[in-house]
Amino acid sequence: MTLMTTRDGTELTVRAIYAEDEDALAAFFDKVDAEDRRFRFLTAIKHLGHDQLQPLTHVDHWRTESFLAFDAATGEVVASAMLACDARMDTGEIAVSVRSDYRGRGVGWTMLDLLATEAERRGLARVISIEDRDNHAAIELEREKGFEAHGVDGDPHLVMLEKRFEPA
Q1: Which residue ranges form the domains of the chain, and what is each CATH number?
Q2: CA nearest neighbour of 124 among 160, 163, 97
Q3: What is the DSSP secondary structure assignment for residue 3, as one 8-state letter?
Q4: Separation of CA 157 from chain center
Q5: DSSP 3-state assignment of 121?
Q6: For the chain, which terminus, N or C, has the lower number of CB atoms within 10 Å?
């Protein structure tokens, strides 16, 4: 576990997710605002079942990594973040979800920093995030973190945000 502090001073313990975390992840997503859940999965989902949770909890911890962030004071899951790399280990797609009552506290920033660090550690050239154009908060956050926005061919409702890394 890694101890991380958000910009507002919230202390998080962050660790890789495991198959045994499926119930905790399901309970976490039940506490995520319905619109934020829709933004994360690009479809309306009231409750994530085993079929949706398995790809998030059964990962190889190199090409795909999924993280849980816990409030260090309460032990509650407050965020989930995922990095899924292509076969060439050139590009990784990222996704972050933050529990509604922890939004605006720097948790998203902290998780994006973690994902960028992990992507660079793995030698990726870039990371991308696919966002619904209505997800203004995520798009703005990613832009503040150095991501550039691009349209998605064939889907005017989506935007791809991309961050490139300097070669090591």
Answers
A1: 2-125 (3.40.630.30)
A2: 163
A3: E
A4: 20
A5: helix
A6: C
